[in-house]
UniProtKB/TrEMBL annotation:
Ranges for domain 3D: 330-389
Chain segments annotated as coiled-coil in the UniProt record: 64-98
Keywords for the protein's UniProt record, in alphabetical order: Coiled coil, Signal
Protein name per Swiss-Prot or TrEMBL: Peptidase M23
Source organism of this protein record: Candidatus Enterococcus moelleringii
Residues annotated as signal peptide: 1-26
Superkingdom of this protein's organism: Bacteria
UniProt biased composition (Low complexity): 251-278
Region feature (Disordered): 251-299
Biased composition (Pro residues): 279-291
Pfam family, one: 3D
All copies of domain Peptidoglycan hydrolase PcsB coiled-coil, residue ranges: 85-158
InterPro entries tied to this protein: 3D_dom, PcsB_CC, Resuscitation_pf_RpfB, RlpA-like_sf
UniProt entry tagged with the keyword Methyltransferase: no
Length: 390
């Protein structure tokens, strides 16, 4: 895309006179700087809000993970409690079966008779007391076992109900935190979108500043050029006046010397006092007036594509040596159709310098330059009208 580079400064100065009225409505650098400063402050504020939202999201995720761990631990406790309840119920059932067998045996064999028989078989009064005490202890122990099993079952049932209630609350808390997390994610997405918009605005302001700086530089260069040309013309006129005055003084001195020589001569033949004409001196030509841009007004229908110096395959300098980072408003053309260095206007793009060429740019094709690849993609391929301004 890029050819050999050479100076374009004269072309820029030539187009400055045409560009200045077109950019007359452009914002000043002070206003652009003020806008950029305002947007930068807004971006800093959004970044701070984004950081706070990110902290809230991290904290919420930690709480969600903590509740999930509690749910898993509580679920394990519930499962353990269910197992203990099942084992307790089995023990109670076994105890009930044993008691039922004993009740049945009591009804069939009359336990009271057996108790009396066991007491009567005592060898002495001490043995009688021991047997009576032993029977009492056995009966009390069996009764306590059944009672303790029932109490254990009741406690386990109560623990199970409590754990299930806790589990329900934990699940509700997890759902609430997930909802809050989703809201925070939405807030972060909105903040990121706002930050991206601010970044785009800053890029646009930066481009506007580059255009304004280029316009100011072109105006300054044009004024300097005009001042130099005016100073050169004035110096030439002064030099010509000095030469003319010196010639007049020389002619006057020569005439006076000739008259003095004629008056003092004693020769009978009067010599002619006419002095030969002084050789004419060349009169310097006036300095040429500064050239002004010409407008051809030639309009051409073209097919337009776009390229960017941000692409890795391209360089920052055009075929005319323009630095696209400093002056991005450039188009690539076929020199046989549009002369290089011309100021052109492309519909939908604006006024630019025809300052680049390309291997694929042949015939009625114009390749407009953008600072970013995204802008090139948005431009795509389209039909445009190109007007040659100068």
């Amino acid at each position: 895309m890029k050819g050999k580079t050479f100076g374009i400064f004269a072309t820029v100065l030539l187009g400055a006179g045409m560009l200045s009225p077109m950019f007359a409505q452009a914002e000043s650098l002070d206003k652009l700087d003020e806008k950029a400063s305002t947007i930068a402050r807004q971006s800093d504020k959004i970044s701070a809000e984004l950081q706070l939202a990110l902290n809230d999201v991290n904290q919420t995720y930690q709480e969600v993970n903590g509740i999930r761990n509690e749910i898993e631990a509580n679920q394990a406790t519930i499962e353990k409690t269910k197992t203990e309840i099942a084992e307790t119920e089995k023990n109670i059932e076994k105890r009930k079966e044993v008691i039922a067998e004993r009740m049945k045996e009591v009804q069939v064999n009359s336990t009271s008779d057996r108790t009396i028989t066991a007491l009567l078989e005592a060898e002495d009064f001490t043995d009688l007391l021991n047997r009576a005490y032993a029977m009492s202890v056995i009966q009390k122990a069996e009764k306590e076992k059944v009672t303790s099993l029932n109490e254990a079952k009741e406690k386990l049932d109560e623990l199970k109900s409590t754990q299930e209630a806790i589990q329900e609350q934990l699940v509700a808390n997890e759902k609430s935190l997930k909802t809050e997390s989703a809201q925070l994610d939405t807030k972060m997405a909105n903040l990121k979108a706002e930050l991206a918009d601010k970044k785009t605005s800053l890029e646009q302001i930066s481009q506007a500043k580059e255009v304004e700086e280029a316009r100011i530089a072109a105006e300054k260069a044009q004024k300097e050029k005009e001042a130099k040309e005016a100073a050169a013309q004035k110096a030439a006129e002064a030099e010509a006046a000095q030469k003319a005055q010196a010639e007049q003084q020389a002619q006057a001195a020569a005439a006076q010397a000739q008259q003095s020589a004629a008056a003092s001569s004693e020769a009978p033949i009067q010599e002619s006092t006419q002095q030969p004409a002084a050789p004419s001196q060349p009169v310097p030509e006036p300095a040429p007036a500064p050239s002004t841009p010409t407008t051809s007004g030639r309009t051409i229908q073209m097919s337009s594509t776009a390229y960017s110096c941000a692409e890795s395959v391209n360089t920052y300098y055009t075929a005319l040596g323009i630095d696209l980072r400093q002056n991005p408003q450039v188009v690539a053309v076929d020199p046989s159709v549009v002369p290089l260095g011309s100021m052109v206007e492309v519909s939908g793009y604006g006024i630019a310098i025809a300052g680049d060429t390309g291997g694929a740019i042949k015939g009625n094709i114009v390749d407009v330059h953008f600072p970013t690849v995204e802008q090139c993609i948005q431009w795509g391929r389209r039909s445009v009208t190109l007007t040659i301004i100068s």
